[in-house]
Amino acid sequence: MNSNLPGSYRRSGDVFNIGLLLFSVVPLIALSFYNHPSAVDDYCFIYTVREHGWIGGMSKYYNEWTGRYFSIFLTHSSPLIFNFFAGFKLLSFFLILGTAGSIYLLIRTILPAYSRLAHLGFTGVIMFLFLLRLPSVPEAFYWAASFANYTLPGIMTLLWIVLTIQWYRTPEKQKKNLIATACSFLVFAVIGCSETAMLIMIVLIGSWLFYRLVVIKNLDMLTLLVMITALLSCSLWLSSPGNTARLEGNPISGDIPMATLATVKFIAGIALDWLTGTPILLFTLCWIGVIASMKAGEVPCFYPPVWLVLMSYPALLFVVIFPSFYAISTELDPTPRVVNSLYFFFLLGWFYLTGILAYRLRTRILPFFQGRKLTVSALYGICVLSIVLSVKSVPNFKTVYRDWLKGKAGAYDHEMKERYAILMDKSNASPVIPPIRNRPESLFVGDIEKDSKHWWNWCMAGYFGKDSIRLSEAGPSADH
After folding, report:
1. Which of 127, 212, 337, 347 could disulfide-link to 24, CB 3.0 to 4.6 Å?
2. Residue 393 domain-assigned?
3. 413 shares a domain with 337
4. Number of domains in the chain
């Protein structure tokens, strides 16, 4: 094997990157075992179910608040229906595995000639970079009302891409039919999670349709089926009376020119920050070397023309942020959970774009890496140094490890169990409970208030069958 970057990468880089995967995923999984339903919204959905029934509760939200029909289904079917508080630990556990697993499957599908260790290594790089600058860890993995709208549809979108590619690779008709059915369901589910997820799916399907019609000049049955499913799903989403009521309730929404300008400005600023404030560019150099050195027969899934990817990638990022500025205000930045989604697709799109460019220009790029041990060693050394410095300077890793290893998550778990004991005491119809003192930044989103008429208090009281619930005193200030 040549003494170039890919040779070194395949010998030691895989192991190092798998270490990054474990370094990123292990604390997230550990924290999932301390997770609980949040006072912020989680109880409201199930209280609505108890007041109006399962179908009635979902119908109420669809008609009065939002067209997110699939996330409505998910949030109104949470483990709280069965008083299964530990179910939220399982939800977070599987969500974290699903995030890493969907990235792994995508990489394995795009680079089928590489080993499983290499695929795990690439997954480790993405997961490390994702957690490193993730705007809100709890909103990504531990707050059900958030991850049902953003993280989960992100996972399902990756699975849809994987299955779509597999459909074209599968010769068996019966298997193709099963894959097509799964693809249609995923499109239906993703579009029904949020307007952001819907627009992401529209951009991806639109790019795929353009590729089939203009570049390939062939429209197959899968494309047609997915188009029909997407149209019907969008119609179901858009026909919700709740969407209109929600927009009409905000008099400063609906300014398309200003929302467009704010979106472009926001994405440009934050993308520059991500590229310069993380090791993304250094990992990109390694990635380019790997792709440029691919041998004959190691054909990646880089079929679309570069110009199509160059148009689709910015469009995808644009539609993630635009709804926030359009529907809420151009004066307020998008919520962290929306920016979580932006960062997720920014990372994946960035490496796909640079990969396809490197593959097209591989004959020009490869000589830079071949036979240059000093260059390769220096690049590795700089990468490692950059990883160490970024972990020290950016708080996310320090926060998740501190919450886990220093016992803050465990103390939070203990306080929540004590709270459940008070709330399940049927002899007290109007309990006054202490605030949660231990608030791990990685898990905690918010608590009820001293005012028993606050929306969150009202929902929790209804869920536990109380006349009212309030805090005995104001809780400590949240850090996020």
Report:
1. 127
2. yes
3. no
4. 2
Cα atoms found within 13 Å of the Cα of residue 461, Cβ hemisphere only: 22
Q: What is the rounded CA–CA span in Å between residue 259 and residue 265?
A: 10
Output the six-digit token pair for 95: 């969500």
- Co-location of 380 and 420 in the same domain: no
Q: Which of 110, 129, 124, 6 is nearest to 353 (CA)?
A: 110
Residue span of the structural domain in which 90 resides: 5-403
For the chain, the residue count is: 480
Beta strands 432-433 and 470-471, pairing class: parallel
For residues 464 and 423, is the Cβ–Cβ distance under 8 A? yes
User: Band of the pLDDT at 249, cuts 50, 70, 90?
Assistant: low
Residue 422's region, left for phi above 0, alpha for psi from -120 to 50, else beta, is alpha
Average pLDDT over residues 392-402: 97
Instruction: Let me know if residue 477 belongs to a domain.
Output: no
Closest by CA to 471, choosing from 463, 479, 462, 460, is: 460
445 lies in the same domain as 355: no
Query: What are the pLDDT digits (tens) for 165-213?
Result: 999 999 999 999 999 999 999 999 999 999 999 999 999 999 999 999 9
- Cβ neighbors of 272 (< 8 A, separation 6 or more) are none
Residue 480 lies in a domain: no
59: tokens are 């119908």
DSSP string across 187-225 = HHHHHTT-HHHHHHHHHHHHHHHHIIIIII----HHHHH
338 and 464 together in one domain: no
Between the CA of residue 274 and those of 9, 137, 283, 286, what are the distances in Å? 24, 16, 13, 18
* Judgement on whether residues 260 and 168 belong to the same structural domain of the protein: yes
- 236 and 104 within one domain: yes
Question: Are 304 and 415 in the same domain?
Answer: no
